[in-house]
Write a structure and sequence with these properties.
Layout: H1 2-9, E1 17-22, E2 28-34, H2 37-43, H3 51-58, E3 62-67, H4 71-85, E4 102-105, E5 114-117, E6 126-128, H5 134-148, H6 168-171, H7 185-199, H8 203-219, H9 223-246, E7 253-260, E8 264-273, E9 276-286, H10 292-305, E10 313-315, H11 323-334, E11 339-341, H12 346-384, E12 392-401, E13 404-414, E14 417-418, E15 424-427, H13 436-452, E16 464-468, H14 471-483, E17 490-495, E18 501-505, E19 511-513, H15 518-551, H16 559-569, H17 572-577, H18 580-583, H19 589-603
Parallel strand pairs: 7-10, 10-11, 12-16, 16-17
Antiparallel strand pairs: 1-2, 1-3, 4-5, 4-6, 7-8, 8-9, 12-13, 13-14, 13-15, 17-18, 18-19
Length: about 600
């Protein structure tokens, strides 16, 4: 086959163009460009190649070419085809880091919070930016929140006002205590007005106002308030310097670094303004087919094509063969001249070396993590007697509150990482009373029948099923799988007296200890905790939906106390009928009295 393809390639013209390597089924597995199609394409079918190139060539059944007028036209066409076809052997950057983010604030809600978004929308909210990168944008939000004492917790206002004690942030002086009923909403509105001033670059006006407030507080001998205002002014002055660097700005210079490791490669971009480091981006990639110069060219094209704004100058570590077409391509994308330079020495070369060092650190860290994951999965394969490493693991847990809202959760770990898009929730339909064993049987029956019925939401079989529970739970689960004619190994996750994962257990009761292998022990513990968390969160969401309007309106009753009450009394009706002395077994005296008074008023 290679000989025939070589002969075909030697008939190609010595002109610039784009070539597509095709598999036996016609799929395009690689797209490239060439100054001379004959020279470049024929080189694949003669001589020896590195492992990855050899693997690609072994799958090539044919190729197709498009002759172009010049190198620039070939570059444009190559880039377009890679975006359209996403060939498996080409470098493909992810989309999740390819933008300059904005800060969003919707002032129409009662207690608005800041968020980071990828682009502005015509939705009535206010947007600030774009900023140099996601990391620095979050840093600006944190600085503004800290400077003005805005909330950083997960509580929602006004829903959670007065339900629980203020958190540690308030006691540390980092939050005004917006969860306390005595903190007025107009103060929150004032803080937001000041936050907007900061984000609009009007920090000098705000600092002046706060200085006047500080002086008045000092004159009135309110020294604690004056000290607090002084500290806030210092934070704002620091933030002002930062805003001058990052707000509404874009780097004037980017330094590109590339590192090809034994297992992983990385592409890093350091953004500079006036010689000052602003931010860093990086992408981890599989080791590419191309040499370093060609790989950098491909990465640079994709990286900047997806960004809204471009620097004036880009430093590359090596000169790609298509330097002039690449410079023209980026200049057209930006709508202005962009210079690409290859520094050889001095400070500019040091920027390149710094970018490469960052790429190296990220690549080696990723390779180390992959090695760790590989070790965990290989240990599980050997210890559990599996035919292959359990790349896909599904875990199940039952959560119930008496006979009410019996639910189950399914979590999925692919290559030892949680895949939340594949998580599933179940409400138990067949039981009127609590029965964890039968609940688990129902859930697994429904899950695997949907697989057998061709449901695309359950299309992939796991390599391993883990059940929260002991041998009896594992035995019941394994019976369901076997009855459905499937061959999926099932094990239980056993906890110790302190509710920590202790071991895995077979359906027959044999325990597999993991204590001698801390990484495996930690991994299985993480799976068990995550599955339990997901099940509890689902149950709570249902209880909030069913009971929230009844209990959540009572001062002092937050999510935890509501759950404790329902766990103890089982139903809202019993809580209504309970006396203060009975309620005090679960909640403090003042909360018990508030609950009793609430239901008395409700009855009246």
């Amino acid at each position: 086959m290679s000989h025939n393809l070589y002969k075909k390639a030697m008939d190609l013209p010595q002109k610039p163009g784009v070539y597509q390597m095709l598999a036996a089924d016609g799929e395009t597995i690689y797209v490239g460009k060439a100054k001379s199609l004959r020279n470049r394409v024929s080189s694949y079918f003669t001589g020896s190649h590195e492992d990855k190139t050899a693997a690609m060539v072994s799958k090539v059944a044919d190729f197709a070419v498009i002759v172009c007028a010049n190198e620039f036209e070939a570059l444009i066409l190559e880039n377009s085809l890679i975006k359209e076809l996403a060939p498996r052997y080409n470098i493909l950057l992810k989309d999740d880091k390819a933008y300059y983010p904005y800060i969003r604030l919707d002032l129409r809600s009662a207690y608005p919070r800041f968020s980071v978004v990828s682009k502005c929308s015509d939705d009535g909210a206010s947007y600030f930016g774009p900023y140099g990168g996601r990391f620095i944008t979050k840093g600006v939000i944190r600085a503004v929140e800290h400077a003005l004492g805005l909330p950083t917790c997960s509580r929602k206002f006004p829903r959670d006002i007065g339900k629980e004690r203020p958190c540690l942030n308030h006691h540390m002086g980092q939050c005004r205590g917006w969860c306390m009923p005595e903190t007025p909403q107009w103060e929150y509105d004032l803080c937001l007005t000041r936050a907007v001033m900061l984000l609009e670059g009007k920090s000098a006006d705000l600092i002046h106002d706060l200085q006047q407030e500080m002086e008045v507080a000092a004159e009135e001998m309110r020294f604690e308030l004056a000290a607090s205002l002084r500290d806030r002014i210092r934070v704002l002055e620091s933030l002002e310097m930062r805003q001058n660097v990052v707000a509404l700005s874009v780097a004037d210079t980017d330094a590109i670094g590339f590192y090809r490791g034994a297992a992983k490669s990385a592409f890093a971009v350091l953004h500079y303004i006036g010689g000052r480091l602003l931010d860093k981006d990086y992408e981890l990639i599989e080791n590419p087919l191309e040499n370093t110069a060609a790989a950098i060219s491909a990465l640079v094209k994709q990286y900047y094509q997806r960004r809204e704004r471009h620097p004036s100058t880009i430093y590359l570590p090596v000169a790609p063969d298509d330097l002039e077409p690449l410079e023209e391509f980026l200049s057209r994308e930006a709508g202005r001249r962009i210079k690409i330079l290859i520094p050889r020495r001095g400070e500019k070369r040091q920027l390149i070396e710094a970018a490469r060092e960052n790429a190296k650190v990220e690549a080696e860290r990723a390779a180390s993590q992959e090695e760790k994951v590989r070790g965990i999965l290989q240990w599980l394969q050997k210890a559990l007697g599996l035919g292959r490493p359990p790349m896909r693991i599904e875990a199940y847990d039952i959560s119930n509150l008496g006979a009410d809202d019996i639910v189950a959760a399914m979590t999925v770990f692919q290559n030892a990482r949680p895949i939340k898009r594949d998580y599933r929730k179940f409400r138990i339909k067949s039981l009127a009373a609590q029965d964890d064993y039968r609940s688990m049987e129902e859930v697994l029956t429904r899950r695997f029948r949907r697989y057998l019925d061709g449901d695309t939401s359950f299309a992939q079989l796991p390599d391993l099923v883990l059940i929260d529970g002991g041998a009896a739970h594992a035995k019941g689960a394994a019976h369901v799988v076997t009855e459905l004619g499937l061959n999926v190994p099932v094990y239980g996750m056993v906890k110790d007296a302190k509710h920590r994962t202790r071991a895995l257990i077979t359906p027959g009761g044999g325990e597999i200890s993991m204590e001698a292998v801390p990484q495996v022990f930690s991994f299985i513990g993480t799976i068990q905790e995550e599955t339990h968390r997901f099940a509890i969160a689902y149950q709570r969401s249902l209880r909030t939906k069913n009971y929230g309007s009844t209990l959540d309106d009572i001062p002092g009753v937050g999510a935890k106390r509501r759950d404790d009450l329902l766990k103890h009394f089982k139903t809202v009706k019993r809580i209504k009928e309970a006396k203060v002395e009975e309620l005090r077994q679960v909640v403090p005296k003042h909360t018990a009295e508030a609950i009793a008074a609430h239901f008395v008023r409700d009855a009246e």
